[in-house]
């Protein structure tokens, strides 16, 4: 199983230089990918912009939106062009992870109806693939047919969408047992669609390491997930805050059939990179 690391693009107070330095050091530490999470109504850096900055200072590491809330990007042709541009600028390293999102305020601020977003995503994906497959818009992605496409979601409709459009699936949060159960459903939808091989399957896990790990995880995650009410504390409690927890999560997700686990940081100090690298070494 590959181990990736998130960019701290959603950690409040992260300076641009710190984000760029993080990307460079994460590649040097040997991680498989740089992941981003995103939403609109929060003081975070937008994902494609963040990964473009990371692409400029790296040469090997994958660049994964995990996940981009595509229905908020209402111009599918422009989104396809942005993704293809990043893919070419990075030498084909973009992994475009896409999800629906569920926060009412993100949709309200976008002046986009939350209802019907699944159907609109299907239309977006169809349009984006047409752009990537030779539409006059360009630029041409490095890989024929477009960058690697990974879709999120935990419903049967989401799993069928993976089988219809994507190269793989990503779980945004949950336990290894939840991952294994959903991954089996993704594989079943893949087989039912007559797709050869198997989809690539990824998951996220939050982490924070060092003497203040518990406090930093609680502060950040209870703020970021404040809209969930009491459940925000449960999200924070699930963060890996010791090397032993990191190792346990990695082992359990690997046993559950995960191909790549991306550890998302709860702080942006650069020591978090090296503490995670040491924990998984």
TrEMBL record:
Q: Does the keyword Oxidoreductase apply?
A: yes
Keywords per UniProt: Flavoprotein, FMN, Monooxygenase, Oxidoreductase
Keyword Flavoprotein assigned to the entry: answer is yes
Give the top-rank taxon of the lineage listed in the UniProt record for this protein: Bacteria
Per UniProt, residues of the Luciferase-like domain are 8-236
Q: What is this protein called?
A: LLM class flavin-dependent oxidoreductase
